[in-house]
Amino acid sequence: MNFERTFQNRFKLNYMMGKGTFGVVYVGMDKITKEEVAIKIEKRMGKPSMLCFEKKVYKFLSGSSHFGTDDFNSYLSMELLGPNMEDVLEAKNRDLLVTDVCLYAVQIIKAIQFIHERGFIHRDLKPENILLRQRDLSTHEVSLIDFGCAVRYRVSKYKFSHIAYREKLPVMGTLRYMSISAHLGIQQSRRDDLQTVGYILTYLAKGKLPWQDMQVTSFAEQNMEVASMKIRMKPQHLCQGLPSAFSNYMKYCRSLEFASEPDYSYLYGLFEPTENSSLRNHKKLHDKYGGFVCHLCGTDFIWQQSLVCHASFHVRAGDALNIQSFLDDNSSMLTILPSLEENTDQLLQVFT
Questions:
Q1: What is the mean pLDDT of the chain?
Q2: CATH 3.30.230.10: does it fit domain 6-79?
Q3: Closest C-alpha among 114, 126, 131, 134 to residue 57
Q4: Integer Cα distance of 49 and 74 in angstroms
Q5: What is the pLDDT of residue 110?
Q6: Domain of life here (predicted)?
Q7: What confidence score (pLDDT) does residue 181 get?
Q8: Are 95 and 207 in contact (CB under 8 A)?
Q9: pTM of the entire structure?
């Protein structure tokens, strides 16, 4: 339900975007900066705020955010980005082109490398925490969010000292994507983030993972059943039907020792198409959103926000007389996503 209310006399909350174990996320407006932002709010429960720690991680990673508290809540505001990878997969009817997944893979691995080089591991990577933002007319860049579970794997930022190997720790992460070591309660390190990314990429490319439909009740049961399947399933079987880059990625990640320095360039290089790459000519038989492209430049659209942003690019560049002419030229989009047809007047208002 859409609503408007003011929070902390600074933020206008427009609508709730999502909620989880630790709080609620709203889309709103920062009255000071006049920017649209995402605002995470958690109840103060007499224990250290996860949002406070997350703010410190963002600051260390040079991210822009604002943290504050009152008598009842802690909150964190940050840049509002585009859709997450789960949204993208759903918009494509769970049938992403493998070549597109490979493009995302390169960016995701480089983003993980950036975090690791600054001494942190994420520990809760999943499609919902991987967001896209429109960089220019036809390209998008990946951003990672939700660092509430992140920890330092490097004890000192001035002198390298890896955290110690430990066992019998609480399970941390999302069962569907977490590494085998995380399932077993072993201290996580860089290898675990990367193995998790491998499961995410396979999920995006195939639309599903083998252990999603397990009929178990307790968390402990589910944890051990999923772990058992991951241990038994060889990478080539998990990634059957995909380019060899996917299974080679998983094999490499599973070979890493606890404190190993990953070869990030090798990993993202697997997904960069070359003359001899198995990726070069690998395509799915069909794209269920075939024809859902901009007639002016050929960009493939998958969500409403992208259409709105993309329309503004063409109008400002003078490629289209106005938003109405852009929509007329791309009328096939409106038949594929009826919600866009219903919101045509709203789209026009955005740019008038």
A1: 77
A2: no
A3: 114
A4: 7
A5: 94
A6: Eukaryota
A7: 97
A8: yes
A9: 0.71
